[in-house]
């Protein structure tokens, strides 16, 4: 893995400041109290409290999750619910109930221990009933559904819809709708990002399907601007608290959507973190600026930030916003001016391969290197750079970064996988106390070499890097030359992830079915792989002795029927087969394997420390 050399001149300077918490009280029963500084993992009790597990968006299972190296092979399916089409977001899990949205337009509350639905909400009917700013429902691609993970505050669930970009508040016990609020204000606005709830305020990024419109209609005028929003439920009505635009209203740019994973929270500085997408179009004067500067050394060698981009156009950026006001505390734009839309690759929407770019494709075609995930927040410790509070985020060009949570300074940057149309790195990473786990998608099927096997592969890769400095710990190729768009989850000493499907030459999409995969988090060894019933693009939740995920898909990609699946640690029959009387021997063997893996990891850390000490001695010798 190459360590990226980042010039200090290419990092925008900005000041950090904080503001007081709003202190508003939740007006509904059973609100979860917010600790002053939440722990790095969900609270005990079988909780998976949003897309990224909790407010830090780190996909790290709670301390009472039981799946580990000793028993992961004994996970067996105990519940499966079929849906047409399926689902892609992780469930919210709380109080013995899993809440999830399907691409068929349902919000489901499922008692996962009994496999019985408690209630369902028809999201499609809800969207059709609401009258608002976005009257052109068909233009959204018919996505009369939600693809995101709900969040809960007390007895209220919150989620966002695709068509109409609605924020929806629902009674968690009954499934009855409390209120809806449209926050997109554009016919093609959608809410693809899962929300985060913190201090009784709900945070939503606004995205769009507009980037696909120019391929279908060459005369289409691109106008959508991404935004970040805070919403509160006040006396039974949803109210917009603030909106922060990623492009100034009235500016002749489009794009900079906020679309990936789930915003993360910094409770110490009272700020929320997001990542943004590329631009769709540029004003003519900025195209002229690009042409005038593209051969300058500062541009060709990336010695400075893009000279043609105004500071208040936040494309392909990571931002920290004040929770109370939406004011931008700091931002970092990673990469050059990046304007791209589907007219640049017409086969994306079904055109023949090799078709020239359409008239709406920008003259200087960008690389579509947006952030398809929000950062994960990590409290400072001996395992973080300089013991600082940091955020970690991956980009579709394959870069992975750690930033100072206070200033946005880039602390390390690495490139664990090639970039591509879907990534690169998208959807999210998992982080435990000292390691960042990621899936390198490699949509474009570029050859690259993985560590430590030195194997050359051209498909997806699962990997782990050191949280302190970004150095590679291990990389494992997705089995059977398959593609993975599945973000990892870390639970005890195991990584849970999967493959999406097989690579199909000439197609932009993987072909299902996918597979569920468990890896040893210390070594990357694949512990099990189970072929699933459908295409697998989903988030995974792990609580107590259970693991849950969906299969299938919908939206812009071809629809795939799928299911919601509940796996449970088996008490007698190993998932791989065999006699029940062999269980004790199997567990003992797995315990020994876990001990060996832990010993190898400890030895690797000692070797790394000795290598650092040797480097220090070499530097001292040079100075003398």
UniProtKB/TrEMBL annotation:
Coiled coil: 589-623
This protein's record includes keyword Oxidoreductase: yes
Cited SMART domains: PQQ
Cofactor(s) needed by this chain: pyrroloquinoline quinone
Domain Pyrrolo-quinoline quinone repeat, residue spans: 87-204
Superkingdom assignment: Eukaryota
SUPFAM superfamilies: Quinoprotein alcohol dehydrogenase-like
Keywords: Coiled coil, Oxidoreductase
UniProt similarity note: Belongs to the bacterial PQQ dehydrogenase family.
Protein name listed in UniProt: Pyrrolo-quinoline quinone repeat domain-containing protein
């Amino acid at each position: 893995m190459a360590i990226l050399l980042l010039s200090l001149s290419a990092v925008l300077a900005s000041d950090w400041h904080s503001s007081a918490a709003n202190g508003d009280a939740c007006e509904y029963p059973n609100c979860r109290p917010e600790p002053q500084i939440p722990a790095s993992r969900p609270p005990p009790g079988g909780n998976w409290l949003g897309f990224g597990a909790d407010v830090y968006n780190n996909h790290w299972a709670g301390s009472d999750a039981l799946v580990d190296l000793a028993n992961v092979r004994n996970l067996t399916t105990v519940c499966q619910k079929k849906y047409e089409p399926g689902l892609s977001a992780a469930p919210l899990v709380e109080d013995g109930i899993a809440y999830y949205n399907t691409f068929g337009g349902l919000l489901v509350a499922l008692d996962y221990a009994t496999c019985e639905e408690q209630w369902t909400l028809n999201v499609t009917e809800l969207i059709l009933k609401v009258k608002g700013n976005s009257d052109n429902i068909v233009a959204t691609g018919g996505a009369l559904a939600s693809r995101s993970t709900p969040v809960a505050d007390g007895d209220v669930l919150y989620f966002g819809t695709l068509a109409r970009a609605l924020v929806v508040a629902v009674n968690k016990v009954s499934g009855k709708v409390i209120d809806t609020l449209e926050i997109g204000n554009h016919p093609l606005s959608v809410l693809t990002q899962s929300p985060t709830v913190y201090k009784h305020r709900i945070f939503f990024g606004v995205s769009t399907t507009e980037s696909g419109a120019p391929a279908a209609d060459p005369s289409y005028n691109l106008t959508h601007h991404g935004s970040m929003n805070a919403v509160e439920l006040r006396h039974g009505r949803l109210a917009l608290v603030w909106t922060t635009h990623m492009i100034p209203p009235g500016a002749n740019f489009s794009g900079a959507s906020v679309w990936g994973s789930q915003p993360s929270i910094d409770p110490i500085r009272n700020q929320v973190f997001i990542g943004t997408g590329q631009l769709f179009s540029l004003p003519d004067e900025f195209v002229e600026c690009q042409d005038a500067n593209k051969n300058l050394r500062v541009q060709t060698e990336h010695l400075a930030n893009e000279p043609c981009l105004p500071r208040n156009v936040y494309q392909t950026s990571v931002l920290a916003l004040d929770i109370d006001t939406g004011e931008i505390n700091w931002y970092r734009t990673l990469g050059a001016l990046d304007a791209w839309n589907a007219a640049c690759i017409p086969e994306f929407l079904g055109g023949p391969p090799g078709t020239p770019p359409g008239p709406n494709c920008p003259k200087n075609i960008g690389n579509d290197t947006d952030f398809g995930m929000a950062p994960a927040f990590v409290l400072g410790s001996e395992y973080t750079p300089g013991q600082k509070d940091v955020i970690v985020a991956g980009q579709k060009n394959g870069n992975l970064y750690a930033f100072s949570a206070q200033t946005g300074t880039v602390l390390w940057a690495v490139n664990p996988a090639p970039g591509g149309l879907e990534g690169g790195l998208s959807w999210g990473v998992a982080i435990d106390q000292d390691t960042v786990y990621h899936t390198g998608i490699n949509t474009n099927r570029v050859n690259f070499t993985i560590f430590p096997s030195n194997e050359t592969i051209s498909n997806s890769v699962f990997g782990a890097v050191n949280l302190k400095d970004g150095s590679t710990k291990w990389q494992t190729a997705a089995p059977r030359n398959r593609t993975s768009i599945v973000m990892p989850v870390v639970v005890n000493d195991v990584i849970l992830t999967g493959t999406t499907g097989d690579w199909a030459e000439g197609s932009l999409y993987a072909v299902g079915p996918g597979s569920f995969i468990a890896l040893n988090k210390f070594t990357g060894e694949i512990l099990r792989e189970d072929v699933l019933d459908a295409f697998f693009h989903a988030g995974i939740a792990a609580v107590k002795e259970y693991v849950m995920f969906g299969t299938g898909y919908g939206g812009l990609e071809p629809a795939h029927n799928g299911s919601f699946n509940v796996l449970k640690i088996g008490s007698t029959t190993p998932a791989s087969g065999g006699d029940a009387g062999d269980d004790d021997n199997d567990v003992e063997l797995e315990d020994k394997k876990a001990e060996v893996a832990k010993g190898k990891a400890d030895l690797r850390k000692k070797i790394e420390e000795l290598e650092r000490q040797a480097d220090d001695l070499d530097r001292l010798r040079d100075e003398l």
